[in-house]
Design brief:
Elements lengths: L2 H16 L3 H5 L2 E8 L5 E3 L1 H14 L4 E13 L2 E11 L12 E10 L2 E11 L6 H21 L1
Parallel strand pairs: 1-6
Antiparallel strand pairs: 1-2, 3-4, 4-5, 5-6
Length: 152
Amino acid sequence: MDADRVLAVYHKLLYAWNVQDAEGFAALFTEEGCAVGFDGSQMIGRREIATVLAGIFASHRTATYVSKVREIREIAPWVTLLRSAVGMVPAGDIELNPAVNAIQSVLFVEQSGEPRIVLLQSTPAAFHGRPEVAAALTRELEEIARKERQRH
């Protein structure tokens, strides 16, 4: 599977979150795809993903993702893994909230010639006992957030 197409779908995923488009977010998954949130909550299937996110988006303005893709690796000709570090800028703020930095693993499969997400896993980037690693990640993501602000 072409890495550029996988990256494009990942960017669409983050964009859909950032503009609070629950249907657009869910549409990037396979029919039975699974999203595991930062808090461990699971949404299984496009319909559940769209429904749960629509409720979240309706209740409040969510933070905006910034990301740094670390790796895109083909596992098999029809399966690709994307790993990324992400941070979030709370709504109405310009500074990253380091408490919600995460590592995302996204597994893509090819369906009908298109990359689709079968699993999105967000894991807190707590780095217990390694505050220097957490601080370095925050600095890296803050730089990306700063560049995003300058572009807009």
